[in-house]
Amino acid sequence: MKTPDTAPALQRTARRAxxxxxxxxxxxxxxxxRYVSWKEALEHLAEGGVPATAEHTEIxxxxxxxxxxxxxxxxxxxxxDAFDWTDADLGEDTRSPVSSADGYWSRHQAAVVASxxxxxxxxxxxxxxxxxxxxxxxxxxxxxxxxxxxxxxxxTAGSGKTMSxxxxxxxxxxxxxxxxxxxxxxxxxxxxxxxxxxxxxxxxGGRNPILRLTxxxxxxxxxxxxxxxxxxxxxxxxxxxNSANNLRHTAPRLLAVKSNPTVLSRLVRDLxxxxxxxxxxxxxxxxxxxxxxxxxNTVRPRRPRPVxxxxxxxxxxLLPRSQYVKYAWTPFSRSLLDPAGDGILPPMDYVVTLxxxxxxxxxVEVSDGNAHVARPWRHGGSSLDDDGSLRQALDxxxxxxxxxxxxxxxxxxxxxxxxxMLVHGERKSAGQQQLVERLRRLxxxxxxxxxxxxxxxxxxxxxxxxxxxxxxxxxxxxxxRFEGLLPYIRDAAERIGGSSSPVVGMRATRHELWKILxxxxxxxGDFEMEGLTITHFRQPAGDGAGVRSFGEWVGRHxxxxxxxxxxxxxxAGQDEDWMQxxxxxxxxxxxxxxxxxxxxxxxxxxxxxxxxxADLTALAAYHLSRRHGEESVGTNGAVxxxxxxxxxxxxxxxxxxxxxxxxxxCTAGSAG
Length: 672
Known about the structure:
Radius of gyration: 28 Å
Structural class: alpha/beta
Largest sheet: 7 strands, parallel
Number of strands: 15
Helix content: 40-55%
Number of helices: 23
Strand content: 5-15%
């Protein structure tokens, strides 16, 4: 009896069990009706049949239980090839202690389908691949000996970081991890966004309960109830927690905590109190390095290790089976440029580089000169009180919303659950409120749907969208004439302005958001804005802050890359600042393209030249400390230039590379 290797798990398990049973019946000692009945049932299941009787169902349930058991070695009774119990894609012993059909990943996939609708295929495939890449590097939770690992996941800015490590969390829970701690940035809104994503995609009070020690309302408080939660239940007290039977009946603990000394101190205190009881708890600690664009302005050579890093290091020491995964969203993250400041936290075991997701717009397009995004607004040297740029940004926001609805109605490829515009405001709440009122006034004056707005939007359509229709593949999905958008303009305006106000604060994180967001106390880049299409900011700076603002439109824009715009309102005499910030951002993008190109060449080099995590610091500093020329640095000769650079050859770089992207006081410390 033959079945293909790609057969479903139940079919393959039944085949192997049938082989074993047949061999044991060969000597004639096991020929009673019970064995004959089992043989027939196993043969039926092994041929791909579904359970047809109560006996078939009972045997199938037993085989599923056996497959999810703690037996890590292949079944082998001394004859024939052993059946491979492991998942070939994810490495040793990565199966879930629960049925895959009822697992956390299944719950996550259902939530992704609900979130992305018709564009699920693109998002789900990327999340599946990227999370499996990382999962394969984690230590199997049921391995007898305890082991830690430290890893770096290097993705692309704006590629959906929260969704990425939420997907990893789902698969890790299925794999058997029973404690997951996600460390967000230091701001409440960052933690809130992560908590809401975990709740929406993982928490299901039915089949797979999760014990949440943090919620959207509060961070980790360290209450008496919280402290009792650290006593993990064991079905079999004689076995360690990481045995299959115990894992199957132990509710996972899930936390999303701020990178805050007070919060982390509480957590470390309570873990230390529980002590040796954590020795067999499989734990995953995810560290989200937020604000990817500020590294060039915040790196300080030989800075003291932050208190939060000290506490996080202590937390990892308390968890002998902890797997630490740091997510960085640019090659020039703070942890890479200044590893001394984080002590033991920089990853030393492995590096995973994730590919760009579908529909991504970022450094490559900037480097190639194909990112037609920035729109500087010069209006006769007028002051910042001029509303011209804001009016055009609002018009473009409505127009691009109408285009999204048109695409959604005419093609099943597109689905847009969010459409947002970001307007940079002042840090002070009074100035922020004034900007909110100003935007509301401009919205009312625009009278979208009236004859005047139709003429404005028609001119904007001809000037901005038709000319760039061939910029990206989705640009071809436009009506031949502006009149084809008229039915959708009113709908877009109603979605944006309906229910309450067209303008909301940055704390609005609910799904299916079609609104104008005003940034205030939250620095740009610290918060993921779903569906971000239009950005407006003023007074560009030539330093790292300007780079930070420029980077906000970078990200995954599936189905609307051609619609992304950034409006910059220039005051009289600010042209030089604008050019400086623009040049700095473009240089940083070229440096990133060169870095990733060289990194790819090194990763595909012979085994003797494999990339080590420690190499990334020097490689990042090498590219960041040089202002790359207009041409992209290709892979030709990249490996040899890298060897020369590592050997201390001062002429390893291109002669066109001159002028540091780092501040002068940081160059020596980062490159050295």
